[in-house]
Each structure stands twice: as structure tokens, then as C-alpha cells.
Write a structure and sequence with these properties.
about 260 residues; alpha/beta; Rossmann fold; about 15% strand; SDR family oxidoreductase; Sc_DH/Rdtase_CS
Amino acid sequence: MRLLDKVIIVTGSTTGIGKAIAKRCVEEGAKVVLHGLEADLGQEVLEEIGKENAVFHCEDITSETCPENLVNLAISAFGKLDAVVNNAALVIASDIHNTDRAFFQKVLDINAVSPFLLIQEALPELTKNRGNVLNIGSVNAWSGEPNLLAYSVSKGAIMTLTGNLGDSLMREYGVRVNQINPGWVLTERETERKKLHGLSETWYEGLPAIFAPSGRILKPEEIAAAAIYWLSDECGPVSGQVVTLEQHPMIGRNLPKDSSTIK
């Protein structure tokens, strides 16, 4: 077991990538603090992985008390804290025309400021155990889609945060900070989003090669499998790194000979 006796906070772990990471952490021997806004979904995950292996905290990640509550819950339930997975995020469409100050600030608060504040709160405990942080970003951090403006900027911000803290926290406290940038992942919410856009129930089947060279998009469990390396001691002293998990390169990608049908 690669995470035996580790205690890990996973934010946004009631669905999707966060849920998959929490489940895989428990399979690898860890105890987990689950977090999310949906109490019913949180209880479902808790029942699935076992109440002896996890506790659940339901609170808005932007709440002033949330970072302290999550860290205190880890200590009270399991006696320590070894790692934080910053996964909670708001994925929402916006562009140059409909992004106002309040909206932009909300997205930044959830996706970039809140992860920072949780790292700040957890640092004393992580320092005791030479622990680590894994931030879950997005390939959109590199520039993003035109209709994901605020979201993309927020993921760019957390990528810079990873590089900055990955250096400074390792030097001063021995705490690693790394990041995964997932590509297109078939989560429950992504499935529902595409259906709201008018696509069919089976939209993810038979995707064009330009979007999915393998014929399918990534599964949350595949992101979770990669997360274990960064959370485990196998990672050694590696810190401040960002790894992209996608099935095609972001730079130098081969376009089809006839790209006129790409939308």
C-alpha cells in the first residue's frame, strides 16, 4: 500500500476526479477527509469507502472557516495531516462579453484563492510530517477555450501558485507542492454539462479523433491513479512540477488534413 497510514484532505470529493482520488487513496491505505457542498453525495461516498476510513465535511470552500475546519477535522479524526489535494473548483462558461467583476472574483476565489488559504492553514501540520500538496488544475491553464475565460485564468493562477510554493515550501519546510493538469475527463458533471448543451445521452461515444485520438476521453480513475505517485513517498523531493494528463500534446499537435469541419 503506497499511502499506508497517510491522512489526506481531498476537497471537492463528492463527485468526479475528487471522489476517484479519495477512493484510490483509501485503497492505498490512507485515511481521508472528504469535502463538498452536497451532504447527500458526501454521505454516499462515505458509505462506499467506509466510515472507518474517512470523515466528511460539508462547507463552501470559500467560507472563512473552511480551511481551519478541514485541518481540525483531520487532526481530531485521525491525529495528523500528511497531504492536501486541492480539487474543488467551479467549472463555468464565460467570455470577454459576460464576465463582470463579481463573477470573475467568485471564480478566482473558489479556484485559486481558496486552495492557497487551505495550504496556508495546513502548513504547520504538513511541516511536522514533511507532507505535500497536490493541486488539480486543467490543461485550460495554458490559455483555455474562448468560452472558459474566467475558469482558464483561475487555473493559470493555481499553476503559478504551484511553482512558487513548490520551491519556497520545499526550501523552508520540506513540504512538496505539485500539480496535475487533467485534459478532458468524463466526470458526472461533464456528462450533464454536455447534455445541457443539447448533446445526446451518448455524446462521449465515437468522438472525433481531433478531440480524442484514442476514441474516448479520460476517466476520473485514470487521474486518480496518477495522483497516488505525487501523494506518496515515491515522489521523493520532487516539487514545483506540473504534469499534463491528456492524450495529445498541447504544443505541436497534429491537425487532420481537412480541419475545415472542426468546431
